[in-house]
Structure formats: C-alpha cells, structure tokens
Amino acid sequence: MTGGLTAVLIEDATAIRLGLPALLPDITFVAAFARTEEALRARPAADIVILDLHLANSGQRDATQGVAAVTDLVSAGYRVCLYTQEERRFVLAACLAAGARGLIRKSLPLPEVAEAIAQFAAGRVVVPQSLVALTELLVRRGSLTILSPRQRQVLAGRARGQTYTEMSRAMHLSESTLRGYWHDLAAVAADHLQQTAPADIERSLGLAPGDLLDFWPSRRPARPG
Q1: Angle subtended at Cα 110 by Cα 91 and Cα 215, rounded to the nearest 5 degrees
Q2: How would you class 208 by CB atoms within 10 Å of its CB: exposed for 0-12, middle for 13-18, buried for 19 or more?
Q3: What is the helix (H) or strand (E) element at residue 49, kind and residue range?
Q4: Which CATH entry fits the domain spanning 6-205: 3.30.43.10, 3.40.50.1580, 3.30.70.20, 3.40.50.2300?
Q5: What is the pLDDT of residues 63-92, one digit of tens each?
Q6: In the chain, where are the structural domains located?
Q7: For residues 88 and 56, is the Cβ–Cβ distance under 8 A?
Q8: Chain-centre distance for alpha carbon 180
Q9: What gap in Å lies between CA 63 and CA 55, rounded to an integer?
Q10: Is the pTM of this model over 0.85?
Q11: Dihedral (C-alpha) 145, 151, 156, 160: value to the nearest 10 degrees?
C-alpha cells in the first residue's frame, strides 16, 4: 500500500519505538530516535517523520517536544505526521499551525494507522475528529471563509459524526467524491491555521487575549544541530 515509503520515527516509549516498525512492514523505517534533537543531529533522509507529541519524561526531562519539535523538524525540511494520544484540540491545532500535516491517534487499529500514513505520504492532510468541530466553529464564526458549498456540507456532516456512506446517500454523491472534498477541506484548514495570527484565532473563538500563547508556534528558526 505504501510502496517504497521511508520514515523516521521519534518516540520516547521504547516498546513503540522498537515495535511500530515491525507492525507496519510496508513502511521502511530508516531510523528511530527517542528525542527530536537526536534526529536533527543525524538528519537521516526520509519521506516523512512520525513524531510522538510528548517526549519529555523522567529520563529526558529537557527533550524538545510538542509545537517546538514540530517547528524544528519542519524548519529542517521534514514532513511531520504526529502519532499521539493528545486530545486537546487547541494543542493539535497549534501543531498544524506549526507545520504538521498529519495527526494520527495512537488508539487507532493498526490497519487504520497504516492507511492514514499512506494518505499522508500521498500528500493528503490527515486530521482527527476532534479538529473537525474546531474547523466548523471557525467557519461559523467567519474566520475561515474560503470553502465551497459542498465542502461546507461535508464539514457539517463530519462534525456531526456522519459516515461517508450516510453522506453519500443524503447528498447523492459517491463516497470517493466526498472524501476528495474532505481532503481538500482539511488542507485549507491546515493552511489557514498556519497563516493566521493567534490573536485572530482567539477572537474568532471568543477566547481571551493570550489564551493560545502557551500552545501556538512562535515561528522561531530551527535550532542548530
């Protein structure tokens, strides 16, 4: 399914760092690291980086993680897909704003993880359900306006938990067409988050000034290796 896809894995949990490559045999993992800093020093060539969002722990308290890790890896030229248990939608949105183009839940079954990575490798933006509701809120409050009527219909359906099969029956469109609308919509939403200032996002969501500053990327340059 993923063909000759090559990946770097950055994951602090030893079991996942050693086990995931064996569980996803269609992906060639060229290297695996416990820290983002190690990956940036080694700079292995790969199509994508699969990044755990939380890397600091008792054994590596000062490890770069979260938005800072995404920013450093994207600045170094990598395409970043998060593999995480994080649920807070503003944290996930901030990671998209920092340049991540994929967010995959660790709780997903392995076939779905492999499919999501394949979609990401094919150039699709992959986002979890928790960000669908946030995207719809941005649309309803006038912050995200460049969607077609069909994209808005698909967004409304996805935000309410409708399957592609259900939407296909209601909208009289094929599931593949609806998936195409969704993939385009996800890319627009990710681009919007990267291009919009946190103050504008705060206003559109009714948040207090500065509420997002602990999460949002600072656009700082990559750290020296």
Answers
A1: 5
A2: exposed
A3: strand 48-51
A4: 3.40.50.2300
A5: 899 999 999 999 999 999 999 998 888 888
A6: 6-205
A7: no
A8: 18
A9: 6
A10: no
A11: -130
